[in-house]
Automatic annotation (TrEMBL):
Full protein name: Diaminopimelate epimerase
Similarity annotation: Belongs to the diaminopimelate epimerase family.
Location(s) in or outside the cell: Cytoplasm
Residues forming the catalytic site: C85, C85 (proton donor), C218 (proton acceptor)
Biological source species: Streptomyces prasinosporus
Signal peptide, first to last residue: none
Gene: dapF_1
Presence of keyword Cytoplasm: yes
Annotated positions binding substrate: N15, N76, G86, N87, N158, N191, E209, R210, G219, T220
Keyword Cytoplasm on entry: yes
Catalyzed reactions per annotation: (2S,6S)-2,6-diaminopimelate = meso-2,6-diaminopimelate
Pathway, per record: Amino-acid biosynthesis; L-lysine biosynthesis via DAP pathway; DL-2,6-diaminopimelate from LL-2,6-diaminopimelate: step 1/1
Database matches in InterPro entries: DAP_epimerase_AS, DAP_epimerase_DapF
Domain of life per record: Bacteria
C-alpha cells in the first residue's frame, strides 16, 4: 500500500461507505484491508467500501470504459465482492460530483452489474437506473427463530430473498444470516429483506445484507422489495403499460422506486458525503498483521 491513503465517508439512507478515490487503481485493497477499514470499532466503520477507479484502469471496468469513465469497485464490509450496490452507486456519484469529476445532471457509472445511468438532481437527491429485476421463480423459504416465511427470489444483479411478514420485529435481532432453503437457490449467499405494508404502494423493510449483517438500508434490496410487492399486488407495468412507484421506508430513511413498462427500475434518495481524511499506513499495516 502507498503510505497515506485518502478516504471519504458517505451514506445513502444510512447505508454507509468508506470511499477510496484511486483513479489509477494503485491501492492494493485486499479483502483483509477492506474488512479492517470497515470495522466499526478498530477501523473507520462502514457497511461497505467504494473503490473509485477509472474504468480503463480496472480489469473488470475496462470493457465499459467507452461508456463510463468511472468504475465502482464495490466491496462488502467483510471484504467480499458483490455484483452491485444501489445506494453505493448513488454515493459514488455524489463523490464524483463533489470532487469535480462530474457536474449535476446525468452520468454513467460502470459496475460489476453493468453500466448504470445516474442523475444528480439540483435538489440534492440522486437517482440511479438500476436496470431490470430478474424473478427466477421457485419456492424459497427463509427462517428466523421459530418462524418461517415464503420468500420471493429477486435478482437485481445481486441476489435477494423478499419475505412479507406481519411485524418487522419478527425478524429478531438479525445478528446472523437468516437460514434459507433450498440451499441451491442461493449458492453464493443472499441478501434477505423482511417487509411490512405501510399503506397504498408504501412498504417498510429490514434487511440482512450478505457480507455486512443488518444494515440501515439496501438500495438493491429496496428495488427487489418494490418489484416483489408489485407482483404480490397483481401489478406488472410490463402488462399494464403504466409505470408503478413504491415508497420504501428503510430504517435509515426513505427510497422511492419506480418500475417502468420496459422493466427498467429507477431508485431515488439522498446521498451524502460526511467526512474526509487520511488512512494511516502504519495503522493499516498493524491491522493486517
Ligand atoms: N447495500 C447495497 C448492497 C450491497 C451488496 C450486498 N451486500 C450483496 O452482497 O449483494 C445496496 O444498496 O444495494
Amino acid at each position: 500500500m502507498s503510505t497515506r491513503i485518502a478516504f471519504l465517508k458517505g451514506h445513502g439512507t444510512e447505508n454507509d461507505f468508506v470511499i477510496v478515490p484511486d483513479p489509477e487503481n494503485a491501492v492494493d485493497l485486499s479483502p483483509a484491508a477492506v474488512a479492517a477499514l470497515c470495522d466499526r470499532r478498530a477501523g473507520i466503520g462502514a457497511d461497505g467500501l467504494l473503490h473509485v477507479v477509472r474504468s480503463a484502469a480496472h480489469p473488470e471496468g475496462r470493457a465499459m470504459a467507452d461508456e463510463a469513465e468511472w468504475f465502482m469497485d464495490y466491496r462488502n464490509g467483510d471484504g467480499s465482492i458483490a455484483e452491485m450496490c444501489g445506494n453505493g452507486v448513488r454515493v459514488f456519484a455524489r463523490y464524483l460530483q463533489r470532487a469535480g469529476h462530474v457536474a449535476e445532471g446525468d452520468l454513467a457509472v460502470a459496475t460489476r452489474g453493468g453500466v448504470k445511468s445516474v442523475h444528480i438532481a439540483k435538489d440534492g437527491d440522486v437517482t440511479v437506473g438500476m436496470g431490470r429485476a430478474l424473478l427466477p421463480g421457485g419456492e424459497v423459504t427463509v427462517s428466523v427463530g421459530g418462524r418461517s416465511w415464503p420468500a420471493r427470489n429477486v435478482n437485481m444483479g445481486n441476489p435477494h430473498a423478499v419475505a412479507f411478514v406481519d411485524d418487522l420485529a419478527h425478524a429478531g435481532d438479525l445478528l446472523a444470516p437468516p437460514p434459507f432453503s433450498p440451499a441451491s437457490a442461493y449458492p453464493d449467499g443472499v441478501n434477505v429483506e423482511f417487509v411490512v405494508d405501510r399503506g397504498p404502494r408504501h412498504v417498510a423493510l429490514r434487511v440482512h445484507e450478505r457480507g455486512a449483517g443488518e444494515t440501515r438500508s439496501c438500495g438493491t434490496g429496496a428495488c427487489a422489495v418494490a418489484v416483489a410487492t408489485a407482483r404480490r399486488d397483481g401489478v406488472d407495468p410490463g402488462v399494464t403499460g403504466t409505470p408503478v412507484t413504491y415508497t420504501v421506508d428503510v430504517p435509515g430513511g426513505t427510497l422511492v422506486i419506480t418500475e417502468r413498462p420496459d422493466g427498467g427500475i429507477e431508485m431515488t434518495g439522498p446521498a451524502v458525503i460526511v467526512a474526509e481524511g487520511v488512512i494511516e499506513a502504519e495503522w493499516l499495516e498493524n491491522a493486517l498483521h
